[in-house]
């Protein structure tokens, strides 16, 4: 199936606008789990004082803010996202951190509104694989990077490596509450196939490609707490259950709880494994 790119972009932007409040509320919890990914990415581009770093699909901005701390007062972080509500959250977070070298701008990753060869590094954590045209976004990334500049990205590994989210998705599909994944459509696992990231980066004109993986564990004191967290941060879960009856919601709740039982400790807490691919390359 070929997607309607413009309709997909509009729908995606609307979903992220609606869920931005949950991401801001849950920012610290998500950041604590995923900080090793952000640190890998920032280390890979190795920002230096005075440089300019661009973050695409930044959400609430945590990855880029790690880079901003290395850039010094003469450097600049350009934090971008297509959802204004995410950018508002990022502005608040930059203020909390006292970062004065951050510029927050609305921008689409598929057409970067910056001059050619104007930035030293680009960061994009879990963004490219959700775009209607990731190839165009990577070409734009290559265009705005200075010669020798680096890009670092993260993209989720295969569903079986990420039961923290895949088990819920599988239950929704099994119950007809969500469509089966379309292999040709953008998705959370769209870059998981072996060699996919390398191919995309090389086709966009990058060299010195490095691909690695980072394991993490999503923790919650109980399944109930985990379910609330998932609702706050997952656009697809809210969409799938938005029109469900209370009985259907209860049934899904119990079914997902049973699916995740193997990762539940005796005290009821959950430790759910996850794995992301990370990559870097040079312009």
Q: Which characteristics define this entry?
A:
single chain; 283 residues; alpha/beta; Rossmann fold; seven-stranded mixed sheet; 10 helices; 22% strand; globular
Any overview of this molecule?
There is one protein chain. The mean pLDDT is 95. The protein is 45% helix and 22% strand. The protein has ten helices and seven strands. The chain is globular, with a radius of gyration of 19 Å. It has a seven-stranded mixed sheet with strand order 3-2-1-4-5-7-6. The protein is α/β, with parallel strands linked by helices and 283 residues long. The protein has a single domain, classed as Vaccinia Virus protein VP39 (Rossmann fold, 3-Layer(aba) Sandwich).
Strand content: 15-25%
Number of strands: 7
Q: Mind telling me the CATH superfamily name?
A: Vaccinia Virus protein VP39
Low-confidence stretches: none
What about the largest sheet?
7 strands, mixed
* CATH topology category name: Rossmann fold
Short account of what is shown:
The chain is an alpha/beta fold. It contains 10 helices and 7 strands.
Topology diagram in text:
Layout: H1 5-25, H2 27-45, E1 52-55, H3 62-71, E2 76-81, H4 84-97, E3 102-106, E4 119-125, H5 134-144, E5 145-156, H6 163-174, H7 196-203, E6 207-220, H8 223-233, H9 235-241, H10 246-259, E7 270-282
Parallel strand pairs: 1-2, 1-4, 2-3, 4-5
Antiparallel strand pairs: 5-7, 6-7
């Amino acid at each position: 199936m070929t997607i309607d790119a413009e309709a997909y972009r509009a729908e995606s932007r609307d979903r992220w606008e609606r869920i931005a409040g949950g991401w801001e509320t849950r920012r610290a919890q998500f950041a604590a789990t995923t900080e090793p990914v952000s640190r890998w990415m920032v280390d890979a581009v190795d920002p230096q004082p005075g440089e300019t770093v661009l973050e695409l699909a930044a959400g609430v901005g945590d990855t880029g803010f790690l880079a901003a701390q290395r850039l010094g007062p003469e450097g600049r972080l350009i934090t971008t996202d297509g959802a204004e509500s995410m950018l508002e959250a990022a502005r608040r977070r930059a203020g909390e951190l006292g970062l004065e070298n951050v510029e927050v701008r609305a921008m689409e990753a598929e057409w970067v509104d910056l001059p050619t060869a104007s930035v030293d590094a680009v960061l994009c954590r879990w963004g490219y694989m959700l775009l209607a045209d990731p190839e165009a976004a990577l070409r734009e990334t290559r265009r705005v990077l200075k010669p020798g500049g680096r890009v670092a990205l993260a993209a989720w590994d295969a569903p079986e490596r990420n039961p923290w989210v895949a088990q819920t998705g599988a239950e929704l599909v099994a119950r007809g509450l969500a469509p089966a994944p379309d292999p040709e459509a953008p998705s959370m696992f769209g870059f998981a196939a072996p060699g996919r990231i390398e191919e995309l980066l090389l086709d966009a004109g990058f060299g010195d490609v490095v691909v690695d993986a980072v394991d993490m564990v999503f923790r919650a004191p109980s399944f109930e707490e985990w379910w609330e967290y998932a609702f706050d941060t997952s656009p697809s879960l809210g969409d799938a259950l938005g029109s469900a009856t209370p009985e259907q919601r209860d049934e899904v709740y119990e079914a997902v709880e049973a699916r995740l039982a193997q990762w539940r400790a005796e005290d009821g807490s959950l430790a759910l494994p996850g794995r992301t691919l990370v990559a870097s390359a040079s312009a």
